Amino acid sequence: MATIAELIRAETMMRTLLEDNDLPRPDAVEYGHGTVWLRWDDRQLVVAIEIDQPPPEESARRAGGRG
Predict the structure, then answer these.
(1) Is residue 16 a part of any domain in this protein?
(2) For residue range 15-48, what is the model confidence (pLDDT) as tens digits?
(3) Are the C-beta atoms of 66 and 53 separated by less than 8 Å?
């Protein structure tokens, strides 16, 4: 599971990316277990930043391996 510091760093990096490209700030930001969600209400848009790696069995399944 991601630490709060990792979640904050991901949010900060995304906010910097938005600002550097003259894009609007999100209306809301939420933290979950290994995920940061940024939401723009008027655009009906959500960006999810997943920080944690999936468990090994999930990685193998996504790669088409056995798991």
Answers:
(1) yes
(2) 999 999 999 999 999 999 899 999 999 999 999 9
(3) no
